[in-house]
Every structure is written in structure tokens, then in C-alpha cells.
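Q: what does this look like with adenosine-5'-diphosphate bound?
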Amino acid sequence: MTTQHMEFKTEVKQLLDLMIHSLYSHKEIFLRELISNASDAIDKSRYEALTNKEMSEGAGEWKIRLTPDRTAGTLTVSDNGIGMTRDEIVESLGTIAHSGTKEFLRTLQERDKQANPELIGQFGVGFYSVFMVSDRVTVLTKKAGLQSSMAVRWESTADGSFTVDDAEKEDQGTDIVLHLKDDEKKYLEEWELRNVVTKYSDYIDHPIVMEVERKKPDAYDKDKTISVKEDETLNSRKALWLKDKAEISETEYNDFYKHISHDFNNPSKIVHYKAEGTSEFTALLFIPSKVPHGIFFKEFKIGPTLYVRRVQIMDHCEELIPPYLRFITGVVDSSDLPLNVSREILQSNRQIETIRKSLTKKVLDTLAEMKKDDPDKYRAFHNEFGRILKEGIHYDFARKEQIADLLLFSSTKTEGNTVTTLDTYLTNMPIAQEEIYYITGTDRNEIMKSPYLEAFVEKGYEVLIMLDEIDDIIMGSLHEYKGKKLKSVIRGDIHLDKEKAPETKKAEGAMEKLRASMKEILKDEVKEVRLSERLRDSACCLVTDEGGMDPNMEKLLKAMGQEVPETKKIFEINPTHPVFDAMNALLGDESKLNLLKEYTEMLYNQALILEGSKPRDPAAFAKTVSKLMVERLKQG
Ligand code: ADP
């Protein structure tokens, strides 16, 4: 095939523009990115060699090599890893695969262009960082497993396009040649390269070698020295997770975390342990302090990196952790899994299941400890990840109570930023109270004024305030906590008193006819009109059946364009509210029936508003209100 001249995709152009013109600090991370790619390429090739006999000839000793050439002004980063075919290189170095990256680009362009470049690697745009220090980049690559010397040459000056050519290369792998900009020639210096490698890539499993010149005593003349060139490995290669905990400093842990997660914050918690017994493995896990940018994108990759005896098997092994702990990153190195373990095997492997159980338990225990020993830090964690963690109540039946113990709640009795837990709720619960109450909604201030809470406030019963859309499902899945049922105050019937007060009974009797008339008027709108035990000051409200759908959930589903079956609600009226006495008086008078109808509809519309919905006919509602105002004003 001849030379192909190709355009970068628009988003690559934008990214390059950003790289070249806007990001000025930490330019040295380009080397970290290239070494990381080289190391991945070697891991892939090594893995292929293990699983596929034909590939086993491989490349001999795995190695990443840095070659600074002062005369040419180039720095070459070479690896003998998997390499790329022509199609692969066009795909990998011409587009940006992740949609999260495009999103990231947009925000970066909108906001501070000097944004922290540590973010760059997070979105898989690592390679393009070479253009922060180079005018021209040549990539020479040969795919592993090819018998011939057919290779591909890719080249670009970051001017919006690149070329791809046939080329010759003897060994498998990739050479990336950076033609350094005039003011970036420091990356030809031994000490500079050594610094950057030890800073960012020290733990990399494969040797990062560079030929260095050393002065040695002359064997023939003790007083003289001679210059010799020899390969030196720049990185210590010690897998951090296999070191003794006592030997690892906090900075080392943090640096390692930042390296693998591409996060620029320190982790909020580190979990490092070695499991022995039925399954032997070492885990080094991190709980981030902030929700990773991509976590809500479909392509967000879940799970720690899986190693088997220090050989990387896959970079995100989602089988190792339950989805509700998907914010955890880190490394798991197993001693007893086979090296050629494949995705299919992973899904039904007992060892993996054992590891997953152990990791889940360890993380949940760590969170419980953190909650007890460092409440402020735990609060911060919960703010970021509580929403994800609580999914576990729904999906992990066996551990639902343990997860419930980790949740923090705002309630009608917490003030400002304080929170409570289910356990504290039970401790403070009055003896007469039989259930744990909660209310769902979108705004705490609004909820605090809600008529649904009136009877509970009067009785001094605490109600948990829940603001996430999934909360009703979560509480439904939890069902009960330490033997006490969880009950939504906006659903089903509420009986806070065992015996109804005599005045309530009396009011009920007097209301029966009115109730029936209102039911008749609203028969197309509501399933039932009943006398309420949850209202004190307000006149009325709407509630769903015990098994009905939470109104917040309903709104969410509708917003997502899902069809929600229309279910009629129950209209509750407060028998002690004076409006009903007045309406009762209208009953006997035929000429007042229209008024009765109008008032009933108006009350129903009020209930809709209180529930967070729109009145059925907003214009008619507004008209009635105005009419009433006029009548009242006329009376003087
Ligand atoms: P990321 O590494 O996050 O995917 P990069 O922009 O750094 O993003 O690289 C894009 C892709 O190019 C990689 O996913 C890989 O497929 C390919 N690639 C980059 N460097 C190499 C290399 N040295 N050997 C083989 N493939 C490489």
C-alpha cells in the first residue's frame, strides 16, 4: 500500500490545539504516557504469548528503551510489545475513542484552559501529549506474530493531518520518535529522563532501559578512567502492592494511586492486604476522594487491575467487585489463578468469586471503621459515593443490613449539615412508635414544610428525608431494619394512634356524606376519598397505595421518556379542618351544588401542587382563585 494522507478527527484537532497552545505545566507527563502505553503493549503481547502458542516466540526479553539522540534532536521510546497493524494505528492515533473525552474537552475549553494536565491521561488521550514537547512525531510499529518485516510508519506534525506508510522493521513492537521542540531539548539529558522515570514510572513492571555513559577505572592504568557505554535500568520495578506495608510511605501510595487512576487528588482511603488460605492474593485498593469524571458514562471501566503472579491479565476486571463498589480502583494479584485465564472463565471462576467476596467484605468493613473513627472524612466519602453505595441494598441481599448501616440520612430532626443513621434513629425512637418513617422528594426545605409530615411532627416522630431518585426503591428493598418496618409517609394508610380519638370518630361520622359527594365529583380522578390521619393543619393531600409508585420515581421515569401506567391516587381530607365544616353546610342546598363541585376541585388541585405536580387545569385553577379573591374583597 502506498502513502496515505489522512485528516485527524475534529476532536483530535481540538485536543492537539489544547495540548500545543494551552497546557504549559507538567509537560513531562508525555513520557509517563508513552511508557504506560509501551508497558500495556508489552503486557498484551506477553499475555498473548501465554495463551497462544504461535505467539510464544515473542520478542525475547521484554523491555522499554529510551534513546536520546543529541545530534538528531530526537528522543525515541521503544517497546517490543504487541505493536499495531495499519488499521489499528489509524484507529488508535487518529481518533478519540471515548465519548467521555469529548465531553471533557468541551468543559476544558469552556473553563480554565490552564486546567490541570493530570486530567489528560484520565481520558485516554495520553499519546497526543507528545505534541506538547515535539514538532513532529514518527511512529514505527510492527504487529506481533507477523513473520515478515512488514511494518507501518505513522507521522504527524500536529497540523491537523497525519501520514501512514509501509515500512520495514525487524522486531515486533513500536518505536515512537519525538522530534523535540527547540526549547524542550532537556528531554535529551540523562538526568532529566531519569528524574521523570523515577517520578512517574518507577513501579512499571518492565525494565525501562537507557544506554548511559559511565567512567570506569582503566584496567591497565589505575590512574586513568575510560568511558564505557552500558544499559542501565532506570526504574526499580518493584510492584508496590507486593512490598511490605510498613515499607510504603503515604506519598508512595498516593503517587501509585494517581498513576493508575489518573486522578489528581489523593485517595480518601487505602486498603492493602494479603489473603491467605483457600485463595491467595494481594489486594491494594483505593477509595477515591472524588467521583471519577467518567463514572456515569457507559464506557467507564469498572474494577481493579488483575495480575496473576505479577503478570497483568487485564486492566479492569469487573468480576472482582460488585457494581455498587464501582468507584474502587487498584490492583489484585492472585497467586493461584491460571495465567491464561480468559473473560469467560472469569465469569464463573470460584477463585474469582472468593476474591470478590473477600474484597467486598474488606471494603465494607473499612468503610464501617472509617465511619466510626473519622466521621468527617466518612461524611465526605458519603457525599460523593453514598448514592452508588446504597444500590448494594437492592443488589446484595445478603449484605443489605450491613450496607444500610453505612448510610447517612438527613431527617426532620437533623439540623444544618448534621446527619443521622438508622441505628441512631432506632435509639431515639419513642416507645409508642412502631415503624421507621421516611419521605422522598427533591428539596429538603420544601419537604420540611410538607403536609405529609404534620402528624409525625406533632407526635415527635422523626422522618428520614431522602433526596435521591432511587431512594424509594432502595428503602423498598431494605424493607425493614433490625425488625422495624420502613414506611414512606406519602404512601398507604397511616395509623399513628392505636385508638382513634373520640373527636375524630365524631368528625368522621359527620363527614361521611360530604366524603361520598366528593368521591362522586372526583370519581374520574381519584381512586378513593378518605379521612386522613396524617394531616393536622392542612386540608388535604394525595397519597398512593402502599404498593403504588413513588411520585419522584414516577416523575423520573416520565422524564426519561418511559411509559408510566396511570394509577389513580387516594385523596385524603382532614376531618378537623374548618373548610369541610363549611362545605358540609352546602350539602343540603341544591343551588349550592355547583359551588361544592368547584371547591372540591380546587382542593384536589391544591393537593396536586403539594405533591409536586401541576394542577389538572392550571388556567381554571387560577381563575377560581381570582374569583374567590374578588368575592372576599367585595365583602370588605
Ligand atoms: P490510551 O492508552 O488511554 O488508550 P492513548 O492515546 O495513549 O490512549 O493511546 C491510544 C491507543 O493507541 C492505545 O489504546 C493503544 O491501542 C495504541 N497504542 C499507543 N501506544 C502504543 C504502543 N506503544 N504499542 C501498541 N499500541 C499503542
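The chain has four domains: 4-233, 240-375, 409-488, 504-634. Residues 350-373 form the longest helix (24 residues).
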